[in-house]
């Protein structure tokens, strides 16, 4: 977790730096979440729906920092997944539950009036939080997202890990195959 510690230190310096004085009147929100994936059970906050691709016991860590002058930066670290494999991941609008579908659509800063949203004008990594990663030979992966907005009335509720990297072409933008696992995150 050295990466997260380093990031937190960097973020703290940025927030305390001269010139960031406006931050004192701006809300800063930090979310940290750690989960060890298990099969669904009521109350579970880290659920795997596909233990062949996200094994029970795999772990995910999310660190997200929002500040109104800086936007929202989110980091995802995973361990215990399949080695050498591409996964997609995004912040979703609803919490995890018994099925992957329960997490709802991706959280969008500017909501696409058309549902499901597969328009690259809305389904893109500037309007959504994308955390795609590829695992190393040990099954660990890391992703970072930075967007220039913060959450207001609506907040993302979870991070979903998907079967493939995220598509960007019209008609498929934002899709990344099956929903493999879900971690509740209090963004
Ligand atoms: Cu997703």
- Report the C-alpha radius of gyration, rounded: 16 Å
CATH topology description: Immunoglobulin-like
Q: What string gives the helices and strands in order?
A: HEEEEEEEEE
Averaging pLDDT over every residue, what do you get? 90
Describe, in plain words, how this protein is organized in 3D:
It contains 1 helix and 9 strands, in the order H-E-E-E-E-E-E-E-E-E. By secondary structure, the protein is mainly β. It has a 5-stranded antiparallel beta sheet with strand order 2-9-8-5-6, with no helix packed on it. The protein has a 4-stranded antiparallel beta sheet with strand order 1-3-4-7, covered by helices on one side. Bound molecules: copper (II) ion. Residues 90, 92, 106, 160, 162, 176 line the site of copper (II) ion (CU).
Top keywords for this entry?
single chain; 187 residues; mainly beta; Immunoglobulin-like; 5-stranded antiparallel beta sheet; 4-stranded antiparallel beta sheet; 1 helix; 30% strand; globular; binds copper (II) ion
């Amino acid at each position: 977790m050295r990466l997260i510690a380093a990031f937190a230190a960097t973020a703290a310096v940025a927030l305390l730096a001269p010139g960031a004085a406006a931050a004192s009147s701006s809300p800063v929100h930090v979310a940290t979440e750690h989960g060890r994936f298990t099969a669904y059970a009521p109350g579970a906050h880290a659920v795997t729906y596909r233990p062949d691709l996200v094994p029970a016991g795999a772990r995910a860590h999310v660190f997200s920092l929002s500040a109104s002058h800086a936007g929202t930066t989110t980091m995802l670290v995973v361990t215990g997944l399949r080695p050498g494999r591409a996964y997609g991941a995004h912040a979703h609008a609803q919490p995890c539950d018994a099925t992957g579908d329960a997490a709802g659509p991706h959280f969008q800063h500017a909501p696409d009036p058309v549902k499901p949203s597969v328009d690259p004008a809305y389904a893109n990594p500037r309007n959504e939080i994308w955390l795609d990663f590829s695992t190393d030979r040990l099954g660990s992966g890391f992703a970072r997202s930075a967007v220039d907005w913060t959450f207001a009335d609506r907040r993302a509720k979870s991070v979903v890990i998907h079967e493939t990297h995220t598509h960007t072409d019209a008609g498929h933008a934002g899709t990344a195959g099956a929903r493999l696992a879900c971690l509740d995150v209090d963004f």
